[in-house]
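>> Question from a student workshop board

For tomorrow's exercise we were told to take the sequence and the ligand below, predict the bound structure, and bring the output to class. My setup keeps failing. Could a helper post the expected result so I can at least see what it should look like? The ligand is heme C.
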Amino acid sequence: MNKPEKNDRIPLAPPRQRSPVRIFIAMGVLSFAAVWGLYYAHRATPLTTRAAVPHLTPEGRRGQRLFNEKCASCHGPNGTGSRAGPPLIHPMYRLGHPGGDGIRRAIVQGVAPHHWNFGAMPAQPDLGAQNIGAIIAFIQEMQRANHLY
Ligand code: HEC
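>> Workshop helper replied:
Here is what the output should look like for this input. Compare the format with yours to find the bug.
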């Protein structure tokens, strides 16, 4: 039996070459994954603050109860933040910003995401004006006691 001639061989695919374009694409994909990972880790990190609860006025105490019932699922206990929403006892909100009107507007109209990466705040329509007033009193007493107001 003859040894097969070199030319009888089924031609193989040409040797693979590391094309610079592929390496470039791979690096692009890896750096995208790294940046996205960092962004995701940052986004998923709960942002919480410590806050002293002062001796509250009766109105503030009523507001505290309402706050911890209606708002703490996102804003954390006493407004100290959670995985789902920002702390309100935070320098972002110092010096009367958002102030009483801003708090009322946030509750009545909801908030489009603008300061943080938590997404939008839905309006909280089932709170009457008196309850909203108590919640504002609570937040402002907290902000004042924590030197943010
Ligand atoms: C479902 C989650 C959620 C609930 C419940 C919620 N909030 Fe918010 N709230 C947010 C998020 C998220 C933001 C931040 C939006 C941004 O600026 O990116 C926010 C922002 C705010 C702001 C700042 C508004 C501004 O102008 O920057 C105030 C004040 C506020 N919330 C008050 C409240 C009060 C009071 C309640 C309860 C009656 C409440 N929130 C309930 C998620 C929530």
